[in-house]
# Entry
Amino acid sequence: MEAAVHMQDVTYVYVTERGATLALEHIDLTVQPGQFVSLVGPSGCGKTTLLSLIAGLLQPTRGEVQVGGNKIVKPSPQVGYMLQHDYLFPWKSILDNGLTGLRLLNRLTPDTRRYTQHLLHEMGLGHCESLYPQQLSGGMRQRAALVRTLATEPDLLLLDEPFSALDYQTKLQLEDLVSETLKTHCKTAILVTHDISEAIAMSDRVIVLDRDPGTIRKEFAVPDAMRRAIPFAAREVAGFHELFNEIWNELLVMNGEAEKDGEATGQ
Ligand code: ADP
Ligand code: MG
# Structure
């Protein structure tokens, strides 16, 4: 089977009037279909850039990005992107928001409309179809945004800190819902998060990125027992805290190195 995502020796440089920033360097990453991978790392290490490359919103300066075996040169409906901010249209009902992607792709039919309503129902928003975003809580809005993303049936979901603006309880509930929904629909997912617990609880693999330039520093495999558990329960599985500490220490060591570099260069 083709890999869901394959990045080969990818480098990305932002060029602006003020100069060039080497955001990512020599990224090699392969994600298999159905896998859930999390990316953690300090601010500015290139996590969003990496997702934007996979989404086809940016083109690599060097190297190649493939999704489902095809080189990505522009955004494709195969890939769904969900961000921290829900970007729902305030003047559209929740159902209409959910149908936005289908309309854009010219794929709105009675069947796809029914499927969107089914997803709303699955996400506990069946009774909210005709409500407007401002009438919903933050967690409900993020669920509506997820419905909009899933309605076009992408194979791959890119999730850029989708839970970070939510209160803790809502975030935990949403982690379980998203995890179960993605498993039920056999999706591949890449999640960016600052929350190490969330990364471990939701993923098969946790990848730690380093900064200046953004590189893959280390990868952690999540043990089977944690992967099988729903995210909430995964936190109670033996070995969870040890893995948390390993990742935490990796980030601490990285911070220490960055501070030393800063002192050496007088920053
Ligand atoms: P993260 O998501 O991990 O916080 P980003 O991918 O947003 O990191 O950014 C990686 C690096 O690229 C940072 O140094 C950031 O300042 C730089 N960068 C991001 N977007 C742009 C842009 N549009 N123009 C120039 N530099 C950018
Ligand atoms: Mg980011």
